[in-house]
UniProtKB/TrEMBL annotation:
Keywords: Membrane, Transmembrane, Transmembrane helix. The lineage of its organism: Eukaryota, Metazoa, Chordata, Craniata, Vertebrata. The keyword Transmembrane applies. This is Transmembrane protein 232. It holds the Pfam family TMEM232. It comes from Myotis myotis (Greater mouse-eared bat).
Length: 425
């Protein structure tokens, strides 16, 4: 897998093939990290040593994948998880430690502060802990959810920590809770708004060179992927609508369909809904804009294509699909930036490949996109790790399985409420 990733060719057909290997590597690295948190990798040091040369070479692949953030972000997750694992399991032989030692004079931040002094465990930060607690509360219908979310918001600044692996997992878990609960969705969008405002404020202060947020685009990319999944797979239509349009009147959403002209007054970042981010990032695009801006815009357009494709034939979401389709058409017609057109072309190339199990749905009824269950599985495993006792949060109703969330109410005809639809005039 590592060898295949290293020999990148800048053609869409080859990028499509490597995207599958990237996803495999992403899934493997997440699973290894979970095993690491459980302490199950102590007997596999020899295997980790064998991975060292490939990981070292993969760490220099940025030039190949930088213009393709949908691939590059997952490569960064692979490297970061293995960075943390190798420093813990191979403290003296880790290639990551050697690279870090060479860069210490540049102030390179270490992730070793999350490894306890006895080198026996990894300490998750408070933000991740509270996100897992929130997910557990939602699953078990606990009355403590509001208190947990209040404490979670108190730790929102930890999203700015350079050790961003905990932040990525925190967003992933909270995103799963947001698929089932509106309060969790609002908390997710609020902490991401504060994160973006802080990042952009620091980036605009050119003289402030003491703070390094060069990694911030990874968090933005992960958040947009999570937001896309909420738009597609949230339990009820109101959650899906809110994730896409935001906490606003549906009638006012038409103004967001067409990105603002660059000459107009640039909008403020009021909320981090899908259209809110599209409006914000598109208005700030330029040839020399910050990578958070163009990568965020790239990921939004890339995921718009994916959503439009997946919602085909879904009569209950005709309105959402129409809004997405119109947004895509106007983006194609008005956006001149080559990077954004790359996002359109790559997404369409992936969807035209019938053999991709990660981004396509088979024509067979019942087959679904495999990758949409990743967040639920990570949240479930972390919940069992951090809250092993079933008595911590009393169980009020049966757990909602991931494969039932999208059409939870569709199967309950007797209790079915009127579905909210988008209207576009």
């Amino acid at each position: 897998m590592c060898i295949f990733l290293l020999h990148g060719l800048k053609y869409h057909i080859w990028l499509n093939a490597k995207d599958k290997f990237k996803m495999i590597g992403y899934l493997i690295s997440l699973r290894l990290f979970i095993y690491f948190l459980y302490g199950h990798l102590e007997s596999f040091k020899e295997h980790l040593l064998r991975l060292q040369p490939f990981l070292y070479a993969l760490s220099f692949s940025g030039e190949i994948y930088y213009m393709y953030p949908n691939i590059f972000s997952n490569v960064q997750v692979i490297l970061k998880t293995m960075d943390i694992i190798c420093k813990r399991e191979l403290p003296s032989d880790s290639i990551f430690s050697r690279v870090e030692n060479k860069n210490q004079h540049e102030g390179t931040d270490s992730h070793m502060e999350h490894l306890q002094d006895n080198q026996k465990s990894y300490e998750v930060n408070n933000l991740l802990w509270h996100c897992v607690a929130a997910w557990t509360c939602v699953q078990k219908n606990s009355p403590h959810l509001n208190n947990v979310l209040e404490h979670l918001t108190f730790h929102k600044t930890q999203l700015q920590n350079k050790c961003w692996m905990d932040s990525a997992l925190a967003l992933l878990v909270l995103g799963e809770a947001a698929k089932l609960n509106m309060a969790c969705l609002k908390t997710l969008m609020d902490i991401m708004r504060d994160f973006l405002l802080t990042i952009m404020s620091v980036q605009n202060q050119k003289e402030n060179g003491s703070v390094d947020f060069s990694w911030a685009w990874i968090i933005v990319s992960i958040y947009i992927t999570i937001l896309t999944e909420i738009c597609l797979y949230a339990a009820i239509s109101n959650l899906r609508k809110t994730a896409f349009i935001g906490f606003c009147d549906c009638k006012s959403s038409k103004k967001y369909i067409l990105p603002l002209d660059k000459s107009e007054e640039q909008p403020e970042l009021r909320e981090t809904s899908f259209l809110g981010l599209l409006d914000y990032f598109s208005s700030k695009m330029s040839d020399n804009c910050d990578e958070v801006i163009w990568i965020g815009y790239y990921d939004l357009v890339y995921n718009l294509v994916k959503m439009s494709w997946e919602l085909r034939g879904d009569e209950e979401q005709d309105g959402l699909r129409n809004v997405i389709w119109q947004t895509l058409q106007k983006t194609k017609n008005h956006e001149k930036d080559e990077r954004i057109h790359n996002a359109l072309n790559i997404a369409e190339a992936e969807l035209n490949d019938p053999t991709d199990p990660f981004t396509r749905v088979s024509s067979n009824a019942g087959d679904e996109i495999f990758s949409k269950y990743i967040g639920w599985r990570v949240a479930n495993i972390l919940s069992k790790l951090l809250f092993p006792s079933a008595d911590i949060l009393p169980l009020k109703k049966p757990l909602i399985k991931p494969h039932k969330t999208k059409y939870l109410y569709k199967k309950q005809d007797a209790m079915k409420k009127k579905v909210l639809h988008f209207t576009v005039r």
